[in-house]
Design goal:
Elements: H1 2-18, E1 30-36, E2 43-48, E3 60-67, H2 80-83, E4 87-91, H3 97-106, E5 111-115, E6 141-144, H4 146-159, E7 164-168
Parallel strand pairs: 3-4, 4-5, 5-6
Antiparallel strand pairs: 1-2, 1-7, 2-6, 3-7
Function: Plays a role in the modulation of physical activity and adiposity.
Keywords: Glycoprotein, Secreted, Signal
Protein name: Protease-associated domain-containing protein 1
């Protein structure tokens, strides 16, 4: 009796963290690795939007991460042709997370990574939620720390590159050196 109750309690407690039917996505992280340029060849951590957007059904081994122009992606993009079938890197601000996601979706993007506009943010993940417009988006939307987004954009500017090459999502449990592959600024 008591052992069975203990086992049942433990099972319920564990499943509270892992049960998709409960919709708990608060502690869910998604990882991607920059393959090029080499100076930012790290594994980055992002968080999926809480209540809008799609999920990654495909793993992209080499896909372009294209910084949107303009960076906030609240309207027509100057480089929308480069975002088609790729992933856009967008900056927070100017309009809702959902609006940005829809702009990237309308330009044919496979997903959007929205970096915080606080460039010194190296630890606080913001929960991206639906706006009041009742619209939807089908592509995955991820939130990236401001420091990470800034360092990716800065590296691309320094190298004169229009995009980074990334793998997404990356299963970090299969990478024994994951800690060593994180950006060095995450430890500051």
């Amino acid at each position: 009796g008591a052992a069975m109750l203990l086992w049942l309690w433990l099972w319920l407690w564990l499943c509270a963290w892992c049960w998709p039917a409960r919709g708990l996505r608060i502690h869910e992280y998604l990882y991607f690795q920059v393959l090029s340029p080499g100076d930012i060849r790290y594994i980055f951590t992002a968080t999926p939007a809480k209540d809008f957007g799609g999920v990654f059904n495909t793993r992209y081994d080499q896909i372009h991460l294209v910084p949107a122009d303009p960076p906030e992606a609240c309207g027509e993009l100057n480089n929308g042709v480069f975002i088609q079938d790729q992933i856009a890197l967008v900056e927070r601000g100017g309009c809702s997370f959902l609006s940005k996601t829809r702009v990237i979706q309308e330009h044919g993007g496979r997903a959007v990574i929205i970096a915080d506009n606080a460039y010194d943010n190296d630890s606080f993940y913001i929960e991206m939620i639906q706006d009041s417009s009742r619209r939807t988006a089908d592509i995955p939307a991820l939130f990236l720390l401001g420091r990470d987004g800034y360092m990716i954009r800065r590296s691309l500017e320094q190298h004169g590159l229009p995009w980074a090459v990334i793998s997404i999502p990356v299963n970090v449990t299969s990478i024994p050196t994951y800690e060593m592959m994180q950006p060095p600024w995450t430890f500051w």
